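Exam revision sheet. Question 4 asks you to relate a sequence to its structure. Input first:
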Amino acid sequence: MRNKKVLFVVQAALIAAIYVVLTYFISAFNLASGAIQVRISEALTVLPYFTPAAIPGLAIGCFLSNLLTGCLPMDVLFGSLATLIGAIGSYLLRKNKWLVPVPPIVANTLIVPFVLAYVYGVEGSIPFFMLTVGIGEVISCYVLGMILLNAFLPYRNIIFKDEI
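Answer key, structure tokens:
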């Protein structure tokens, strides 16, 4: 029993760390935030398909990424909340792998545009931001995420063991 808890914490921590590294990398190309964003770390939002440890891992990774890349406090809060909602939704839809990327896409498409408009005061309309953020999320979560999910499928019992 204790080994399962340790494994859960280690998996969550590794997912958070990978999320931070990927976000920090893509922020060098100004694609981690803003009206046009393709946060490649969001591809990891398919990981709840394999393990529930991905839920806190993604939320903590997003929280730390937003802090480290200089996001404003309300963005740190609501961006992390969007990722948490998406991760929970992905876990709940894990029975159908093709639906797993949908919750993070929807959560970010609905939440992030309001952050851009009201927290950062970015010029543009909410529907425009929904379009641009949504396209970036489809690229990150659905295209890259499904590539990642399918690449991990043959190794799921090795990578995502449920015992040490």
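Marking note for examiners. The mean pLDDT is 92.
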